[in-house]
Amino acid sequence: MQVSRRNLLVGGGAASLVAPRLPRAAAGSSERRFIFVQALGAWDVTQVFAPVFGSPGIVHQTGCEPSSLGDLSWVDHRERPHVSRFFARFADQTALINGVYVASIAHPSALRLSLTSSLDATQADWATRIGAFSTSDSVTPHLVVGGCYYAGRYGVHVGRGSTSGQLQALDEQIDVAIMALENGVARCVTVGDSLLDYDSHAVNDELQSPLFNSLFLSLETLMDRLAAATSPSGASLADETVVVVLSEMARSPTYNGSNGRDHWPCTSVMIVGSGVAGGRVYGGWDSLMYGQPVDLASGDIAEGGTWLAPEHVGATLLALADVDPADTGLSVGPIGAVLA
């Protein structure tokens, strides 16, 4: 199936354009591509990203164990085999950024903050800002697939433009994303678990565990698809694409009275692929699952360092796109250690 800009945006409603609010860059800027994967509803980082054991302030699901490969560490569990399988295959390309403080525990505002660092709904998200700096007028800056860009029940729509209300399974969205990138239709594509919901105020483990297992299986599929696809430049898409995996916020480090977990402002972001200094964790958690200050140059936890927030993640993504964060209105620099 050949995909063109017209039949993606007009021929069926599976995806739609989010228009840029920034001027295009001059020819010669980088054309590294991006796929954003959203896990909407607030994921539980104790399932994967917070291997902090032995603290009464952080309670893991029974059966969880710490696992690591080199300097990359995560939480392993027999119910989530695809998590460890993904890291076993792609650890060297994977950067985990832990302890990112999103200054909200309400879905709409947390989603805006995580994607734009602002509560102003007119502000463009990271993907739209990156896409605006494409050197080709024929490339859609930011393509949103399968209605994933907002959760309808939250009434959230960040960035500019409109999205389709048609929901698709994540693997179907990945198919569209790969076709869009390999055919030069878009520079950035957003996909997500539109049919799933990480908002687990009750029976947290029964809901979150299969969601994470399914998510990482889909991420493995995505990485394999990128490796097999060819970009418009003739290179493998895997050599030119960054995959960003995030949720609008996290969940509490202990259970509530319904064996669920409530909203929590400190979360994780996973960045995989081209230009990423992978194989390690950046930032970290304290004994109560708050973040710790980080030296942006080294990525290490450091007294007197910087408390990570969404704007630092955004600045890092913009730098990976060869865009000066200041040119898009950000006043902070990237986590320099993440840049290979």
Structural summary, described in words:
The chain has 340 residues and is of the alpha/beta class. Helix content is 24%, strand content 18%. The chain has helices spanning 5-9, 81-90, 107-116, 126-131, 170-182, 204-228, 310-320, and strands at residues 15-17, 33-38, 65-69, 72-76, 94-101, 140-145, 186-192, 241-246, 250-251, 263-264, 266-273, 280-283. The strands form three sheets. An eight-stranded mixed sheet has the order 1-6-7-2-8-11-5-12, with helices on both faces. A two-stranded antiparallel ribbon has the order 3-4. The chain is globular and about 55 Å long. 54% of the residues are buried. Residues 1-30 and 151-165 have low confidence and may be disordered.
Q: What structural keywords apply?
A:
340 residues, 24% helix, eight-stranded mixed sheet, two-stranded antiparallel ribbon, disordered N terminus, 12 strands, alpha/beta, Alkaline Phosphatase, subunit A, globular
Short description:
The protein has helices spanning 5-9, 81-90, 107-116, 126-131, 170-182, 204-228, 310-320; strands spanning 15-17, 33-38, 65-69, 72-76, 94-101, 140-145, 186-192, 241-246, 250-251, 263-264, 266-273, 280-283. It is of the alpha/beta class. It has a single domain, classed as Alkaline Phosphatase, subunit A, CATH 3.40.720.
